[in-house]
Amino acid sequence: MSARSASSLTFGVAVALVAGVTLGNGGANVMPVFVDDFSSRFGLSDSGAGLVAATQLMATAMVTLLLAKAAARPGRVRMTRIGLALSGAGFLGAAAATDPVTLVLANLVVGAGLGAVYAAATAALAATDDADKASAVTISGTVGVTALLIMGVPAANHHWGEGTGFLLMASCCLAAWPLVHRLPDGPATPAAASAGTGGTTGVRPTAVLLLGTALLWTVTQGAWSYASVLGRQHTGMSPSAVSAVLAVSSVVALVGAVVGPVAARRFGRLRSMAAFVTAQALAMAALILTHDPVFFTVAAVLWQACQLAVLVQMLAAAALIDPTGRLVASLSGAGALGTGVGPLAVGAVLDTAGAGVLGLVLALGTLVASLPLLRMTVSGPSLSPEPLVR
To answer: For a FRET experiment, which of 118, 228, 278, 387 has its CA 20 to 30 Å from that of 194?
Structure first.
């Protein structure tokens, strides 16, 4: 890392990273609240609201993947601000929409803008002098700010009328404009980038690695989407109790973001990440299969903590392998793609095979999906070096 020019993780840099990653992934994280607004404002069915949500999520994922290579070059602040302007305009359009067609088009614009923000912000993680610390701080900050947005958007809809939650998101895009000024930029020259990658200036992930990442987040997001439903049905807890358990687990899970880098330094990235993945798979299966409220609570906390530990280690490993940031942005895009299809895929399995089969499928899917990522942490053999400048 010392061979390349890297940015210190100052307060300003940390704020820029948190602002970019939070908004870039904001559509996925706040989507449950958005779906409620879609349904109530336009009388959409579950499938109709899901289609609107999928439009935004797929746009975010595809734009992130398409801009991953561009995000490895200088100009990340400009790319982020263009994305903020585009998504802000989309949020305003969603707030003013009077029919479903306009709503879909507005969400398409939102997704495209957020994809540009997400590509630039995640690529910037690789430009810091401590990838593990930068990933941990960014993910922790993102979790905290996202929690505020999840509370703020429905509160705005409740107090000021339906659709005003989108105005809040647009205002966040405006507020983030000056904050992202300190976003670490890409290498100015091929030589600067090659200093950290053994002579190459951009790392193009193979289809296997991208598919593994997408599958991992398909499983994770899908299970999270149905955690509340399964908790109520299997444990007999009230909706408010299940919501409280999941909310607490999300906050307590921040421990995973801190423990992940520490475990990587002490036990090695491969062994620690393999342990977290295994624990995540077992906790996920237990969460779905258990009928005991206490066991459900413990499983939820363990699952979320291990998930954040895996996420932090994945981002840090990708940043160390490819200092240009292209690999981090590509994996983030693949994860966003999995996040978009996760609820549909898991819902289909749950409807056709039941919770018993679903628990086993998700546990096995987690283990299988993690194999390319574990291989990446060793020496990057599943990666194809590609010159940044042809």
So the answer is: 118
